[in-house]
Design a protein that fits this description.
Layout: H1 3-15, H2 19-22, E1 26-33, E2 44-46, H3 48-61, E3 62-75, E4 78-89, E5 94-107, E6 110-117
Parallel strand pairs: 1-6
Antiparallel strand pairs: 1-2, 3-4, 4-5, 5-6
């Protein structure tokens, strides 16, 4: 698949909440970088196992009420996807709306890097 095909597939899966299924779009050595690391964790997850563990942490610690996914916006071997998430942190019961942009880089038909941009307010 080319970059736009991967981008469209990722957006479609995210809109359906099928994040585990989206992992087939990633290279085994893919890197995920957060704007800020979760408590006690690194900002960077290297490899599919680490990315999956990061996703499992998110699900265990957050209740998602709704999510909007926008994009993709492609540019050569990269694309951006926008997310707006109405979420509650389970440990604190704090509910808020999170907005973030994600920049994905594609190489050899797979996502090799994802970078998430958001404020840590």
């Amino acid at each position: 698949m080319n970059t736009l095909e991967i981008a469209n597939k990722l957006v479609a899966l995210c809109k359906e909440g099928k994040f585990d299924e989206a992992q087939v779009l990633y290279a085994p050595e893919a890197v995920s970088v957060e704007a800020g690391g979760p408590p006690g964790q690194s900002r960077e997850a290297v490899g599919l196992a680490a990315i999956k563990a990061k996703g499992e942490w998110w699900v265990a610690n957050h209740e998602v009420h709704s999510m909007q996914v926008a994009g993709p916006w492609p540019h050569d071997d990269r694309f951006i996807v926008g997310f707006r998430i109405d979420v509650t942190m389970k440990p604190t019961r704090h509910r808020f709306t999170m907005e973030e942009m994600a920049l994905y880089t594609v190489k050899d038909g797979k996502i090799v890097r994802e970078e998430f941009f958001y404020t840590m307010d």
